[in-house]
Design brief:
121 residues; alpha+beta; Ubiquitin-like (UB roll); two-stranded antiparallel ribbon; 2 helices; 16% helix; globular
Length: 121
Amino acid sequence: MRLVKKLKFKISIPLKGLQSGKEYEFEIKDDANFIEALALIDKMERESSEKKIFPLHDGYIHNYLQLFVNLEEGTIYEDVGLSPYAPDEHGLYRKFNPIRDDIKFNLFPDTIIELQQDVGC
């Protein structure tokens, strides 16, 4: 029985120095969902000794949760590009995590989630 699972997030933001993105690989409890995983990344970012990326947008955005998720509605913002896949039984990343439909969906083990804030037209 697994008590933890591995996840990987690739996050890019259309701001100077953040376009190429940051990657986060970590273990989290086995029943963790997208919100819990992103909150853990926010914690890692706060505790990091590397150059801080927050606050953004004139001090209004203090973490990834604020940037990507409407917590009141329990949804991912529509202008967020999202690719949430895990390996299938053949090891190919084709197993889709339906987190736009259910933000509390229990993420599959070894999921890679790519997030990108859309700059608009």
